[in-house]
Amino acid sequence: MNRVYIKTYGCQMNERDSEAVAAMLRGRGYSMVDNEFDADVVLLNTCSVRDQAEQKAIGKTGYLTKRKRSNPDFLIGIMGCMAQNRGTELIDKLPDLDLLVGTQKFHAIPDHLDNIIATQKGLGPRPSTVVDLEEEEGSQNTIRQHISDERQVTAFVSIMQGCNMNCAFCIVPKTRGRERARPIEEIVDEIEELAEKGTKEVTLLGQIVNSYGRREIPIRNKKSPFVQLLEKVQDIKGIERIRFTSPHPRGFRQDLVEAYRDLSKLCEYVHLPAQSGSNRLLKLMNRPYSRERYLEIVDSLRTMVPNVYFSTDIIVGFPGETDADFEDTCDLFKEVSFDMAYIFKYSIRSGTPAAEMGDQISQEVKESRNQRLLGYLRESSLSRNESMVGTTQEVLIEGRAKRGELYVGKTRGYRNCLMPASDRLVGELVKMKVDRATQSTLYGDLILSGIDETDTQPVSLSNSN
Ligand code: SAH
Ligand code: F3S
Asked: What pLDDT is stored for residue 120 in this prediction?
């Protein structure tokens, strides 16, 4: 009765939250399984950013409830953003749901499951759905890495919760609540613990990481609280690489640009959501920066770190997006020549300002704009990867590839690598000579003499051919 499977939809923050829930459940004697068929309890950690993600989770729940007919003890829970966004309305749709838990109550899940299982053991009729959707002060501090014995070569660390911006299209402020930062010391403790267990790379997570702690922590030496945090993480022994996602163009100041020069562990890969390249649209989206400012940030980073990599989020088909607006986005896209991009077709989120705007864009137009940007991305990503053929790259080996004999790893610029290696090298920084590139992957061989070097500086991109 205690085998749990957690299925996660959506972003890295959700993955992070699922890991924390799994760790808490393990601590209570539950065992985690990796597929729904072996589980007595299935928990769906849901996403509400686009309608499609909600529909998937609703469909999955409907499908799972069929199993209850033959096995009434089988339990199903929905947690996270969709629980918060749709609330008890979900129970009308899915009356067989056992548990509905919001984004500030993940830590309460073990108690709820214990209680549900106890009542099931013959102590009366099946209780109605357990609902826990309240806000909770301090909940950002309950999502931390609990002891997991398995070594994680790379780990996500949540540094804050919530978002105070009001982008016209976005449901996140509703699902995740107001911005709340975790104290620096607690984040550092968590990362030290991870490092002791062998973690080499951490990704700091928040909706707008560069506004981390701005109300709680004073600026020191002209450095924002976020940069102060990065400096502390830089000093943690054992950690070799630092990443974060996502910063916001607003508040991306010189101290953060300089951090890329000064902090050797900070990887030169910047995910900087643009959403649009049209100033008119940025205004309608309530994004407080211009395309000129966005490009200025890109330029200042390129000046500081010439081989920096850029990634972005773009929405196509926001209400009222004209051909001219979209051309502006294409121009920005080509000008930056993104190495990676997440392109989203606008999805109406009820309760957000954009849902009320007239002039919704047709599915066909969204699709064709999507395809055009994907085309540009293919070109820029492939040409970036091809430029690395013949160079030597520092790669962190993460494990065996899903298929075949090769091992997978990533460069500091977040490029996927495949190479022959060995189990002994998992979690190690190695040097790989790139001999072939596709849009998504670099292939090559290890340069064995480089393995024991502790040098964490980016390797030079000079072409050795
Ligand atoms: N601040 C977060 C954003 C979370 S939402 C971050 O930067 O990580 C992730 C992305 O989903 C957004 O950047 C946006 O591009 C996209 N998105 C948000 N709402 C959307 C909607 N209604 N339709 C389509 N895409 C959306
Ligand atoms: Fe959403 Fe905008 Fe915040 S995209 S998460 S409201 S910065």
From this structure: 78
pLDDT of 449: 66
What residue owns the CA closest to ligand 1's atom 24?
Answer: 346
DSSP 136-176: -TTGGGT--PPP-SS--SEEEEE-EE------TT--HHHHH
**In the structure, how many helices (H) and strands (E) does the chain have?**
14, 19
Q: Tell me the CA–centroid distance for residue 252 and ligand 1, in Å.
A: 18
If you measure from the C-alpha of residue 170 to the centroid of ligand 1, how many angstroms do you get, rounded to a whole number?
A: 6
pTM greater than 0.90:
yes
CA of 248 to the centre of ligand 2 (A): 9
- Please confirm whether the linkage preceding 381 is cis (ω < 30° from 0): no
* Residue of 12, 315, 366 with the most ligand 1 atoms within 8 Å of its CB, for mutation: 315
Q: Is the CB of 396 under 6 A from ligand 2?
A: no
Provide the domain limits for residue 37.
3-132
**pLDDT mean across residues, the chain:** 93
> Residue 340: which H helix or E strand, with range?
strand 340-345
Work out which ligand 2 atom sits closest to the CA atom of 248: 7
| pLDDT over 90 percentage in the chain | 87
Of residues 399 and 125, more confidence is placed in 399
> For ligand 1, atom 14, which residue shows the shortest CA distance?
313
CB of 393 shorter than 6 A to ligand 1: no
Position in ligand 2 atom list of the atom nearest CA 207: 5
Q: Is the pLDDT assigned to residue 456 strictly greater than 80?
A: no
What angle in degrees, to the nearest 10, is found between the helix axes of 291-304 and 254-262?
20
168 lines ligand 1 (CB under 6 A): no
CATH of residue 122: 3.40.50.12160
Q: Give dist(CA 177, CA 130) in Å, integer.
A: 21
> Does one domain contain both 182 and 223?
yes
Domain end call among 71, 103, 132: 132
Strands 31-32 and 3-8: parallel
For residue 13, give the ligand 1 atom closest to its CA. 8
**Alpha carbon distances (Å) from 132 to 61, 100, 101, 408, 463:** 18, 6, 5, 40, 57
Choosing from 341, 366, 386, the residue where a domain stops is 386
CA dist 464 → 394, 416, 439 (Å): 15, 21, 21
Contact 246 CB / ligand 1 (< 6 Å): yes
